[in-house]
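Much of what follows relies on a compact textual record of a protein's fold. The record below shows the convention in full:
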Amino acid sequence: MKNSIYSIVFLILTGCVGAKNLIEKDSFFSKENYIAKHHGEVKPSGYQYPKKDSFKVLSWNVEHFVDSFDDPYIDSKRENKPDSLMANKVAYLVASLKEIDADVVVLQEFESAKFLRSIANNRLQNMGYTYFADVSSHGWYMNVVVMSKFPLGIIYGYGNVTTPVLEYTNDEGAPETQNTLNTRMWSVEVYPNPDYNFLLTGVHLKAGRGERNIAMRKGQINFLKQQFKRFLKEDKNKNILVVGDFNSVQGSEEINLFLNEKSKRERFIDPLPETVMTHTSDDPKRRLDYMLMNTNMYKEYKENSAEVPQLFTPQKMREISDHLPVTTTFKIK
């Protein structure tokens, strides 16, 4: 009986050693190919990381950007029968994307990642855009989409989440909640190289002025901040970047929820100069669009790289959108 036990132990140990050797020999699981150790992801087969020491991120609300097909599940005149000027919008957007040449692109008010993939495949060939993602609404056509030259990891979709209309009660004195807008918020892991990654969050927060709309945005932001606490609890060095149309002006309660956080690790920084505005595109007088980075990611921020590029004449920019784009560059450490 003792010999049998020894034999079983020997087989188990040699089996473990054999499995270990197999993992070490397998290129998919070699140490340098882990892009997310905690989740077991690997670099896509055949993918080669660009040999560069920095990367650029673009965020842009491109205003009612829809394809030419009618989605039978979306009841909207603008989506059912797109404006005749859409052909111009597509052409101008393509020219803009070529000019900016960002590595990661986040677009708000864009119909779908499928549409963006089609544009990239047909009109942005050889630019390296390979990875696409979104969390589409079931009932509306204005979504937030991302395309990237770098591999994307897990996408965290918040569409099923209910958020409070924070610190607000209606005419009857009752609190309110909402979960119709939260598809326009998501987070996704991005991998610019084997040793560097960051959490990208794209947003298009509730539009409109007034107490109720502000309260809805604060509820959305409060949820995001709790999510970021979870990520930072898992990894205190997590790089976090939040981009998009916040529908909030500089110095507002909503933006200050990010900028005035007491915990340094959870605090965000707005790198754009205070004088830079993004809305409206032909006569910008206020800022609604941001790239906010946590203090971890700010260490990689390339100084003075945050900008609002003026690509065309004001009239032509207005044909694309009522918002201006925002770009920022980061060093890969």
